[in-house]
Predict the 3D structure of the following.
Amino acid sequence: MSKLGIWVDFQQKIVCTELRRQDLISFSEWAYDASDCAQRFSRTSYLGYRIWAVPCMRLMRKHPSLSRALAVVVRWMVADIKHERGVSSQSHWMGRVVRRGIFWPANRLIGHAASLAVPTGQSKGDSDCAFVLKS
């Protein structure tokens, strides 16, 4: 069960949760994105997401301009989600490109590459980014 009482664990959405914490996206925008990710994340894509999202969150806390820029991109992605679900009749070209052409493929690619490596001193499911290639 989610800590917020909805269908997704808010800790899974690192970047959007940080944007919400900074009040740069609305709860509704966060919920659309979180529910989409809850439906689409696989073990591999979530591993890929965590690898880049944790350092990104740390940078967002140091650089407010990065957070503001990412909030714009998240709003584009949410517009694409709304169109895909039939909530909005207007498509969003940039949201489609970012979400379907960059976000999901990058998460899968990074996650797959990470799954080919073994974390030093950890099991494969842990999220540390110090990897050593398998022999």
